[in-house]
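Researcher: Structure for this, please.
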Amino acid sequence: MTVVTIARLPLFPLNSVLFPGLVLPLNVFEERYRALMRDLLKASPADPTDPDADPAVSDEPRQFAVVAIRDGHEVAPSAAGMPDDVTTKEAGAGPGAGFSDDPLTSFHAIGCVADAATIRERADGSFEVLATGTRRVKLHSVDASGAYLTAEVEELPEEDGDEAGALAEGVLRAFRSYQKRLAGARERSLTTGAELPDEPSVVSYLVAAAAVLDVPTKQRLLQAPDAASRLRDELKLLRAETAIIRNLPSLPATDLTRQATSLN
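Model: Predicted structure, token format:
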């Protein structure tokens, strides 16, 4: 009998998809997310017995759930460039600002837990955060009654599936070909010299994050039931994208090795 474990975590919606094992840099300036970071810092402070300890770093997990936005705004419509007192008090940018009355309908159902290795507060009260995706979760409910959104989430299993090893090898070959074509389209090399992993689940997430794909496609890859299903989908996508780049060498693309910082 399978036991379903439900946990409650702070929720951080983004216009992007986070995958397990991938790094997520965040620039946190909205008050609702500042409050989230302040609570994470309080819950997991730096070692008080070490006078040289960096207050931004803790050995304890600082976790929140990242979900891709289906319908809504990553930043509250009145928030960008406005002081907190105006944004929060006059414009009414509460925890669910920019989303529907039922926030659960605004987000994709499958997200990823992020662990903030570094939460560094700036002089103006905003935060510089560096987090890493850890595991997939399914949203069951969203609560907008506090200073920021929280959600009940269920951890999803990580399974390789049939023929995952062979599929991973094929995807890595297709990914290298894709990199070369994309580098040619940009007239620069994307080769880092780093060895690519061979564990099927790691390969599946790395390729999903690195390929130049839209959010719905990345979300579909995150939601795949196992690594083999994800790798099969990626193999088709990589072959199709490589063919497009070959026929349209001037196609614009973004760096495979760089992930944009969130505007939050």
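Researcher: Any notable elements?
Model: The helical segments are 31-43, 84-90, 164-186, 200-210, 215-223, 227-247. The CA atoms of residues 181 and 245 lie 6 Å apart.
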